[in-house]
Specification:
The complex is a heterodimer of chains A (367) and B (939). Chain A is of the alpha/beta class. Chain A has two domains: 8-151, 3-Layer(bba) Sandwich (Glucose Oxidase, domain 1), CATH 3.50.30; 162-366, Class I glutamine amidotransferase (GATase) domain (Rossmann fold). Chain A has eleven helices and 19 strands. Chain A has helices spanning 43-47, 102-109, 119-129, 143-151, 162-165, 191-199, 213-218, 237-249, 258-266, 306-311, 356-366, and strands spanning 8-13, 18-25, 29-37, 55-59, 63-64, 83-85, 88-89, 112-115, 132-137, 171-173, 180-186, 202-208, 223-226, 253-256, 271-287, 293-304, 316-322, 328-333, 338-341. The longest helix of chain B is centred in the N-terminal third of the chain and has 17 residues, at 258-274. By secondary structure, chain B is of the alpha+beta class. Chain B has seven domains: 9-116, Rossmann fold (3-Layer(aba) Sandwich); 145-208, Dna Ligase, domain 1 (2-Layer Sandwich), CATH 3.30.1490; 214-349, D-amino Acid Aminotransferase, Chain A, domain 1; 357-517, Orthogonal Bundle (Carbamoyl Phosphate Synthetase, Chain A, domain 4), CATH 1.10.1030; 523-660, 3-Layer(aba) Sandwich (Rossmann fold), CATH 3.40.50.20; 689-752, Dna Ligase, domain 1 (2-Layer Sandwich); 758-938, 2-Layer Sandwich (D-amino Acid Aminotransferase, Chain A, domain 1), CATH 3.30.470. Classes of the chains: A alpha/beta (367), B alpha+beta (939). Chains A and B meet through helix 3 and strand 15 of A and strand 11, helix 9 and helix 16 of B. Chain B: Keywords: Amino-acid biosynthesis, Arginine biosynthesis, ATP-binding, Ligase, Magnesium, Manganese, Metal-binding, Nucleotide-binding, Pyrimidine biosynthesis, Repeat.
């Protein structure tokens, strides 16, 4: 029984698999790489996370939209996913602190989605077949036409997307009187990373992805930060060379997610495209130095090669591993003040277990 | 940190007889813990005097002590067994209190053993309301403003400071006993007196009432390395003010944003880490102000709780099993996720479905009780519905309740008077969720409903969808008018065919037939802890109406379905879980695939590794039928799940499905009073004069014939519901009218009541050729007290040899005449050495587990194999090992219902039972019980 206009919609995967549902959000057509997130809270944070740029997001939680949306809970100024795929699109929300319904938000942001989908079947499909491109349409139902359109969508493998979501202009964040100055390279940074730095007495200058190292140095930072972001790190030669230059300078350097992968590339450790990535807020990570564990928020489709790290233990030290599949979750560059993690210590959405990493970075700047 | 190698033997403390607030969820946790420790090569000893539990079965533990939970018993165990460590966190508050008591007496130290999985200082801190409050404030968390009072005057003073409405919470009590809301100053004094007297330390906390705030519960696990994970977050649909055990609860949380949730998670972890040093489970309750999202801590239970059992079933994550391993030294990252087997146990389960837990109340058993829900738990059991939408889960929970509801309303049980409905919305009782929908249906604004119930508008809006759908549905005349899309939509939100039929005033069969024609069928999804991110092998399924079916029936192996007994309630409880578990084990041993269907999250039989396949579904025809059509089993066992399962026999038979064991016509013969009496007459077995009446006139006629006193009851009820003894026409008329008022469409049975008679019962197994008498129990209390409320002595202690021989003779005759294949329970009355048969139940009875425990014979397994036909009685070498007498002692929960008549009668009131072994009749415990018998006789 819908009180909003909902029309039949279709989800077509690259391998020809079709799911039928109803439109959610704006009526239209959208494409992207399909991926899934298993978190049970934080849909708005996911929609606005620049790391998801260009992706079609399957949310596995049974109901999406229950608590509406709230402007201050966005991770960037706009929706970054290309489309939403969910089971129950619950546009009738309730939360006194919320600003608007998910439907109003999607219409404002022109997001196309599809609901009443057996999301569990979709996840099981991706789990076995791997990540692939897909198309959602609530205006075109002819499968051949959709297939043709889907064929034009480029593969995520080898796709550089960071510069599309990076800031165009340099800007500052936090108090100029703060104790530390951090130069942030923005590949699609999440708002909450900035907040976490600012809360720790850091003044930030956020630079566009392709800013030359000289410009960063000219600001005279106490430390550098390589942000998260979308796409494949492999084609990002510009960022890798900046990372190399930072390493030479030997100032504290911290990288998150894409930033972690770029740091690996900077020490000649290759990355690879994962079968279907890690996306959710319940991923178990063990800190090898302390032996303690943390539940982490994750969002990545590429990873750092464990074999290459194994062969380069003189250069890098693995600091964190994933307890589910043993993948590399964190590393430290030997002889440098540089470290990085594959997951999201800033969370949002997700648990705050790993926020100590921001403290460790600040400590490095203090010394 | 790996396993502590110094621990080679562990004693687990059970929770004793079932009482309100402490039910069979602790059998579930104790059994899991025991199996988990035995996996590690640890010798497990168990102490619990509840004979109906699986934990006290040889299949679960190495050594079982069926002893009362007292320090004397503990000393006995420690004298006889070398115990390296004691695990007290699996047996609820009873076990914890016992552990503390033994600790204070220096028993653990004396016997050179230690407690694991617990920190006594931490328990003290969480139980002592004032210390807890201070501690929370010290670590920077918020609590509701409150003051402690140790006397009446201090209490009055506190109330003046806090203001009304306020809450009285007695220290150290179970399930909120003695606590309550006080809205007006004039109600304060009696409430305070009661609170002070209920607390063993005469201490209450007078707390500001945060009425209308939302309530959440988090289930946590912590290991020795201080790693903490949240296993489940549960949202209470009923806001603050109603005990969580009496609240409808939902997982995952439906109305929590990530910011609010993560704050809650941070605080929960901080609180747990601040509580001493222990490894294991913990439950934390929070309250959230919906307007500001301000958060306060309500309470912490540093042990496995009722909610942990629910959380385990809701997520698939076996909390007690893991908690037991943490207690012996493992850390979470060293353990595997038991469901996927290849990912880590250190993780937080994620759900791609919704579960709704609904409590089951039994107010009808407690005449005169206050039905209003509050801080003190009053429900006797619970059910869980799983679905892919909140509404589907909610309606499945309603279908599971065994209240003759077809879902959330739309089943001719709606109320239509707005004033009555509004009153029930404000004063929450067992039917509030149904009344909420009634109100919406009658057009009461959502806002008004929210104001009265303080239920989050999100839930109200969801239920409103049902009302709108029913309005549309009413426009159709015949099933074929319903558009396919709309039919699918109806099923997606949990409507049963029967509800759809009722709304349209057509037959259920028409809806079912058309729905199947449209191929709108249930598919089954797995509960896998990870929203399908990883592959899981665990065969734990629920139904929904989604595209892909994950439950692929196995090929080659013959399958047998066991029907469970639904929610625990008075008259039907944990004993049937015991029966189902043994049935499953026997089915597997006999070479079949064992499939379990039940909806009670507290049970062991719904543990994911008990059956070969588990369908967590309502024991409700439509759900059963779809499973039958998918699995195509050899047949269904209905003898093990109490009356709930037995009730399904008729439909199964009518639809041509095979019932394993005694055939339906024979079971029906035993259940149908008229036909059964004819059979008794034919067999020459005496029975009390009786008659069946359709109205009060007929009843009076019959009474004239049978004579007074007469036993009056509705036909087809459980646990003697509305059964009364009347002594004259006036009383008879009054009671018959009351039965027709509350149970229309019923008939009334009138039996001549054998005053001052003795009662006895036999449980027996019959294979068609032979009859084996499992045991003969003599009730201490005279006839007229419900058998469930009687103290039953095994074997008989005062009946003559002639009477016993007659009982055995009648039992054998009846079992053969009814062609019983499996179990039968027969109840007798003995007066002046004349033996009368009162009734026969062609199924496992409440006492079967008791006899199995007392005689140490796996009777349920034997009976199941006989039902299957794979074995005959002669295949078993049954050697009962009696030792003196065993007494089944009923246990009551009257302290939850202060105004209820505590006198026993034909209607069952006990919630649980204990077993006591005595050497001979000079035992003081027996003599005390026997003395009370005469009190009943003179009454």
């Amino acid at each position: 029984m819908s009180d909003i206009q909902q029309v039949p919609a279709v989800l077509l995967l690259e391998d020809g698999t079709v799911f039928h549902g109803l439109s959610a959000g704006k009526i239209g057509t959208t494409t992207g790489e399909i991926c899934f997130n298993t978190g049970m809270t934080g849909y708005q944070e996911i929609f606005t996370d620049p790391s998801y740029y260009g992706q079609l997001m399957v949310l596995t939680n049974a109901h999406i939209g229950n608590y509406g949306t709230k402007r201050t809970e966005s991770e960037s100024y706009s929706i970054k996913i290309n489309g939403l795929i969910c089971k129950n699109y619950t546009y009738e929300y309730h939360r006194p602190l919320a600003d608007q319904s998910i439907q109003a938000y999607f219409e404002e942001e022109n997001l196309v989605g599809i609901c009443n989908i057996d999301t569990r079947a979709v996840v099981r499909h991706i789990r076995s077949k791997g990540a692939m491109n897909a198309i959602i349409s609530s205006e075109e139902t002819d499968l051949d036409a959709l297939k043709a359109r889907l064929a034009e969508v480029p593969s995520m493998d080898g796709l550089e997307l960071a510069s599309k979501v990076s800031t165009k202009e340099t800007y500052t964040f936090g108090s100029p009187q703060a104790k530390y100055r951090v130069a942030v390279l923005d590949f699609g940074i999440k708002q909450n990373i900035l907040n976490n730095f600012a809360e720790r007495d850091c003044y930030l200058q956020v630079f566009p992805a392709q800013t030359p190292i000289e410009e960063l140095r000219a600001w005279n930072p106490d430390g550098y930060f390589l942000s998260n972001g979308p796409g494949d790190p492999a084609p990002m030669a510009y960022a890798v060379s900046t990372a190399k230059a930072i390493l030479e300078e030997d100032k504290p350097l911290f990288g998150i997610c894409l930033g972690h992968q770029l740091l690996a590339l900077a020490v000649d450790i290759p990355t690879y495209k994962m079968h279907h990535g890690h996306r959710g807020i319940n991923h178990p990570v063990k800190n090898l130095a302390t032996g303690k564990c943390e539940i982490t928020s994750q969002n990545h489709g590429f990873g750092v090669s464990p074999e290459a790290i194994e062969a380069n233990t003189d250069k890098v030290e693995v600091t964190h591993i994933n307890l589910n599949d043993g993948t590399i979750e964190g590393m430290r560059i030997r002889g440098k003040k540089a470290f990085s993690v594959q997951y999201h210590p800033e969370a949002s959405p997700g648990p705050h277990d790993a926020r100590y990493l921001f403290d460790e970075f600040v400590k490095l700047m203090e010394n | 940190m790996p396993k502590d190698q110094s621990i080679k033997s562990v004693l687990i403390l059970g929770s004793g007889p079932i009482v309100i607030g402490q039910a069979c969820e602790f059998d579930y946790s104790g059994s899991q813990a025991s199996r988990s420790l035995r996996e590690e090569g640890i010798e497990v000893t168990l102490i619990n005097d509840n004979p109906a539990t699986i934990m006290t079965d040889p299949v679960t533990a190495d050594h079982v002590y069926l002893l009362p939970l007292t320090t004397e018993s503990i000393i006995q165990v420690l004298e006889e067994k070398q115990i390296d460590a004691v695990l007290p966190t699996m047996g609820g508050q009873t076990a914890l209190n016992l552990a503390i008591e033994a600790d204070e007496q220096g028993i653990w130290e004396k016997y050179n053993t230690r407690l694991i999985g617990v920190d006594i200082a931490a328990i003290e801190l969480t139980e002592n309301r004032e210390a807890f409050r201070k501690h929370m404030i010290d670590i920077g968390l918020s609590v509701a403003p409150s003051k402690i009072a140790n006397s009446f005057l201090e209490g009055k003073d506190a109330a003046q400071h806090i203001g009304f409405p306020l809450v009285i919470r007695p220290s150290y009590t179970l399930g909120g006993t003695g606590g309550g809301f006080v809205h007006k100053p004039e109600d304060f004094d009696p409430a305070l007196r009661r609170g002070l007297s209920m607390s063993p330390t005469h201490e209450v906390l007078v707390e500001k009432a945060v009425l209308g705030w939302k309530e959440f519960e988090l289930e946590l696990l912590r290991d020795a390395n201080d790693n903490v994970v949240i296993i489940c977050t549960v949202e209470n649909l009923d806001p603050m003010g109603i005990h969580t055990g009496d609240s409808i609860t939902v997982a995952p949380a439906m109305t929590l944003s990530d910011t609010a949730y993560q704050r809650m998670r941070d605080e929960a972890i901080q609180a747990m880490r601040s509580l001493g040093n222990f490894s294991g489970g913990c439950n934390i309750q929070f309250s959230l102000n919906p307007e500001t999202e301000e958060l306060i801590v309500i309470e912490i239970n540093p042990r496995v709780s009722r909610s942990s059992a629910l959380a385990s079933k809701a997520t698939g994550y076996p909390i007690a099993k893991i908690a037991a391993k943490l207690a012996i030294g493992y850390t979470l990252d060293e353990l595997k996720n038991q469901i996927t087997q290849n990912t880590s146990a250190y993780f937080e389960p994620t759900l791609d479905y919704v579960i709704v837990k609904m409590p089951r109340w039994n107010f009808d058993k407690f005449q005169g009780s206050d039905h209003e829900l509050g801080l003190q738990m009053k429900s006797v059991g619970e059910v869980m519905g799983i679905g892919r939408t909140f509404l589907e889960a909610l309606q499945k929970a309603c279908q599971s309740l065994e209240n003759n509801r077809m879902g959330l309303g739309a089943d001719m049980k709606e109320w239509i008077k707005t004033t009555d409905i509004l009153e029930r919305l404000e004063k929450a009782s067992e039917d509030r969720i149904f009344r909420l929908k009634d109100a919406l249906r009658l057009g009461v604004p959502e806002k008004t409903i929210q104001k009265l119930t303080r239920i989050d508008p999100w839930f109200i809006k969801q239920i409103k969808q049902l009302v709108k759908m029913e309005q549309q549905l009413m426009r159709y005349n015949v099933a074929e008018d319903i558009p396919a899309d709309f039919m699918r939509e109806l099923k997606t939100v949990g409507y049963s065919d029967a509800q759809i039929a009722w709304v349209m005033r057509i037959q259920e069969e028409e809806v079912a037939t058309y729905r199947k024609k449209l191929n709108i069928r249930r598919t089954y999804k797995m509960v896998d802890t990870c929203a399908a991110e990883f592959e899981a092998q665990t065969p734990y399924f629920y139904s929904t109406f989604d595209q892909e079916n994950e439950s692929i029936p196995s090929e080659g192996k013959k399958k047998v379905i066991v029907l469970g007994s639904g929610p625990n309630r008075i008259g039907q409880g944990i004993e049937f879980d015991y029966c189902c578990v043994h049935g499953l084990l026997a089915i597997k041993e006999a070479g079949y695939e064992a499939i379990m269907i039940n909806c009670n999250p507290e049970t062991v039989s719904t543990d994911f590794d008990m059956a070969d396949k588990l369908y967590f579904e309502p024991v409700f025809w439509e759900h059963l039928e779809e499973i039958m059509e998918l699995e195509k089993p050899e047949g269904v066992i209905v003898q093990l799940g109490g009356q709930t399962a037995l009730k399904m026999a008729e439909t199964l038979h009518a639809k041509g499905y095979k019932i394993i064991g005694t055939s339906f016509p024979n079971m029906d013969l035993a259940e149908d009073r008229g036909a059964f009496s004819d059979l008794l007459k034919e067999l020459g077995i005496p029975y009390p004069e009786y008659g069946v009446a359709n109205d009060a006139d007929e009843a009076l006629q019959i009474a004239k014939r049978t004579g007074y006193p007469a036993l009056v009851r509705p036909s087809y009820v459980l646990g003697g519901q509305r059964m009364r003894i009347v002594i004259n026409d006036e009383e008879l008329e009054k009671h018959v009218l009351s039965i027709f008022k509350h149970l229309p469409d019923n008939r009334v049975l009138i039996d001549h009541f054998l005053d001052r008679a003795k009662e006895a019962e036999i449980d027996a197994i019959c294979d068609g050729d032979e009859v084996h008498i499992m045991g003969i129990m003599e009730h201490i209390e005279p006839a007229g007290i419900h058998s469930g409320d009687s103290s039953a002595v095994l074997p008989t202690y005062s009946l003559s040899v002639e009477a016993i021989n007659k009982m055995v003779e009648y039992a054998e005759k009846l079992a053969k005449a009814l062609d019983i294949r499996g179990l039968i329970n027969i109840q007798f009355a003995i007066k002046d050495d004349q033996v009368y048969v009162i009734e026969a139940n062609p199924r496992a009875s409440r006492t079967t587990p008791f006899i199995a425990k007392a005689y140490q014979v796996p009777y349920l397994k034997i009976a199941t194999k006989i039902m299957l036909g794979t074995h005959k009685l002669k295949d078993f070498d049954i050697k009962p090992r009696p030792s003196g007498y065993a007494i089944k002692v009923p246990v009551f929960s009257f302290n939850k219902f202060p105004n209820v008549d505590k006198n026993l009668g034909p209607e069952m009131k006990s919630t649980g039972e204990a077993i006591r072994f005595i050497k001979d009749l000079s035992d003081p415990f027996f003599r005390e019980l026997d003395k009370q018998r005469y009190m009943y006789l003179t009454r």
